[in-house]
Amino acid sequence: VTVPNGSVVVDNGDGTVTVELPSGSTVTVPSGSIVTDGEDGMVIVELPSGETVTVPSGSIVNEDGTIVGEQPGEQPGEQPSGPSVTVPDGSVVTDNEDGTVTVEVPSGPSVTVPDGSTVTDNEDGTVTVEVPSGPTVTVPGGSTVTDNEDGTVTVEVPSGPTVTVPGGSTVTDNEDGTVTVEVPSGPTVTVPDGSTVTDNEDGTVTVEVPSGPTVTVPGGSTVTDNGDGTVTVEIPSGPTVTVPDGSVVTDNGDGTVTVELPSGSTVTVPNGSVVVDNGDGTVTVELPSGSTVTVPSGSIVTDGEDGMV
User: Fold this and answer.
1) How far apart are CA 103 and CA 127, in angstroms?
2) Which DSSP string corresponds to 242-282?
3) DSSP code at position 3
4) Rounded to an integer, what distance in angstroms lies between the CA atom of residue 246 and that of residue 140?
5) Model pTM?
6) Which end of the chain is more exposed for a tag (fewer CB within 10 A), N or C?
7) CA distance 7 to 20
């Protein structure tokens, strides 16, 4: 191992060496490494492979670049119980001492990830994280990623909103309290803070909004939680419709929307309508003009002139 003048080196007898640097920082590294004192208690390690990582004092750096953060009370050279993370060459790793690690990748963005994650620098302001249970997610720099261990990942984006998404998703922070999610099969959906997104793998996405209701929408939709058991959906071609919990919304591409309600009834309505499921095979529609009408399932409702429907 190559170390600065004044260092103390301990051979652990297992192919690793623990180095106490002149600043007092310690690090355990594989034989053949080059160790340099960094700023603010950090240590710079060049591994035998040529990969360079910057780690907090007390870390163990494995030959494959995996970094293990040491926990308070442990002695240098002991196998720590702290978090580990696999990072690209040139990363700066900070142990948050809460089971998570913050990684600043070489292109600049940072991400906070759970123990056992693998971090990839996409060099476009985003970072891809593989969490320990297997799912991956691509997130903007500054995000925090949580492994739900059920095939989903929760992401807190830098401006504050959180969203739960399936593995393989890409999350974009719109910086207006909403998040856009591209699910693995391709569709996107824009959702409010606290939503859960499910990929139906048929061009549609199901969204559970924070107040509880769910809605199934075509890709490209924007979903708003009204907080009263209803959801407003803006579909890709432009129209909006307000629907009850459990509805399925279809974009007809002609300025109208077909809504399948939880009871099984369907109705086709114009832009701006509010749809109510009566649960008896009929549907009540409030039209943009203010008129209301109750119709049997399967009806097409058009907003006429002078309050006519």
Assistant:
1) 10
2) EEETTEEEEE-SSSEEEEE-TTS-EEEEETTEEEEE-SSSE
3) -
4) 31
5) 0.78
6) C
7) 6
pLDDT, tens only, 1-52:
888 888 888 888 888 888 988 888 888 988 899 998 887 778 898 888 888 8
For residues 273 and 241, the answer to whether their CB atoms sit within 8 Å is yes
87 Cβ contact partners less than 8 Å away, ≥ 6 residues apart: 53, 65, 67, 93, 103, 105, 118, 119
**Measured between alpha carbons, how far is 54 from 93 in angstroms, rounded to an integer?**
6
* CA 162 to each of CA 54, 99, 173: distance values in angstroms, whole numbers, following the listed order: 29, 19, 10
How many CA atoms lie within 13 Å of 45's alpha carbon, on the beta-carbon side? 37
% of the chain at pLDDT higher than 70: 94
Using alpha carbons, select from 102, 58, 93, 99 the residue that is nearest to residue 79: 58
pLDDT at site 42: 84
Q: How confident is the model at residue 305 (pLDDT cuts 50, 70, 90)?
A: low
Range with the largest mean pLDDT of 65-69, 198-202, 286-290: 198-202
CB atoms within 10 A of CB 224: 17
Reading the block at residue 195, the tokens are 């939503």
Binning the chain into helix, strand and coil, the percentages to the nearest 5 are: 0, 50, 50
pLDDT at 57: 83
* Per-residue pLDDT reduced to its tens digit, 95-104: 888 889 999 9
* CA-based radius of gyration for the chain: 27
67: number of CA atoms within 13 Å, CB side? 35
Please give the span between the terminal C-alpha atoms of the chain, in angstroms, as a whole number: 84
Supply the DSSP string of 195-237, one letter for each residue. Answer: EEEEE-SSSEEEEE-TTS-EEEEETTEEEEE-SSSEEEEE-TT
In 10 A of CB 55, how many CB atoms?
28
